[in-house]
Amino acid sequence: MKKIFYTSFFIFSLIACKNQKTAAQGYQGQGKSAVVSTLSKPVQKQWKGIWSFDNESVFFSNDFESGRLNGITSDGNNHYTALITAENTPINVSPWYAFKVWSNTPKTITIKMTYQDSRSRYYPKISTDGVNFTPLDSANFTGINKGTGSFGIKAVPEIVEISVNISQKPIFITAQELYGSTRVKNWIDSLATKPFISTYEIGRSREKRAVNLMEVSNGKHKKAVMVISRQHPPEVTGFLAMKSFIETLCGDSPKAQKFRDKYDLFVVPLMNPDGVDNGNWRHNMGGIDLNRDWQNFNQPETQSVRDFLIKKESGGYEFVFGADFHSTWDDIYYPIDSTITGEKGKIVFDWINNITNKLPQKHTNVKPSTTIKPTMVSRNYFYVNHGMPAIVFELGDNTPRDFLKEKGKVAAEELMDLLEGQD
Ligand SMILES: [Zn+2]
């Protein structure tokens, strides 16, 4: 099962690459982030429940963690149209969807996926248990109004039609694998069975969900690494690399034990639990992109990490490295330019080089940022306010899952080596 899962992702990735002529150079990165207000704005909460069609014989549901289906209509002849909309606008192109479908008798149906003013960024994944996912067979996928560009949003179709076999056992159709707050908490708790790992809330989200922190510490020192992930709900591939990164740092290898003999590790794996559980495209339930709020701190999720860092620093902690995991069109590193960070930032660039040397099979672009004020994004806040060499670590939406895991592991090993060499 696992084998098929990884292999399918690999094949899918190959297909994706073949269709994108400039993919060899990879994603060139986004431009400078505009300064925007992060005061709360209204968001539309989706109706949650079950739709039934054809005399209660075909059913659709969005009523589960991370579910998103804003509307579904029957067009007759086993054809349906799904409407996927955002929590509010303006918003970037990351139309998340996740729903279940089943029927009283086995049949094949076609679903037309529409995304309001957006386009089809995420290739559909299918699951029968909500835990193990495989990409939809490409024979059952048709792009409509195909993109005219060669990369990113311009290269994907506006609408897609998918066909699926349904029966009494519901199947999940989702934009990426499901990692809602319950599944993430289970992962944290499974790691926290180790004696040197504890977990606690550092705050609450707007809808009062826990912002959980994982503390890896044997209580002997005051130097630490800070890691966060999932400010943006659909960015599951960044989360998966982060998960492997953390598991390696918490592992039983002599290298990891040596690392923990000198350093503590603080992790907030799910920065935006409301956004994730509501199936949001990007924002929290204040309608705000959290990764623009690290200057004014209008949102409770960012406030909780700010307060945590200030408390730890006033308790004598020195932060030696910070990483924020995200996903975008392809793997890319966003460090802070060396003209700003100088000697202090050298570890970040050494780290990127070392990971690249260990993983030559996939090219990863590096795009250093030359603007760090106003801080706005976590990486800048980490550096400006806490002197942390810091990076935004981006993984591709379609990066093969076995490679994500390998990259997270190698990234952890290389960081441990560099920190060891710093003493
Ligand atoms: Zn992001």
From TrEMBL:
Q: Where is the active site?
A: E394
Q: Which UniProt keywords apply?
A: Carboxypeptidase, Hydrolase, Protease
Name a Pfam family for this protein.
Answer: Peptidase_M14
InterPro entries assigned:
Cytosolic_carboxypeptidase, Peptidase_M14
GO molecular function annotations of the record: metallocarboxypeptidase activity; zinc ion binding
Give the UniProt record's GO annotations in the biological process aspect. proteolysis
Q: Which SMART domains match?
A: Zn_pept (SM00631)
**PANTHER family under this entry?**
CYTOSOLIC CARBOXYPEPTIDASE, CYTOSOLIC CARBOXYPEPTIDASE 1
UniProt name for this protein: Zinc carboxypeptidase
Lineage of the organism? Bacteria, Pseudomonadati, Bacteroidota, Flavobacteriia, Flavobacteriales
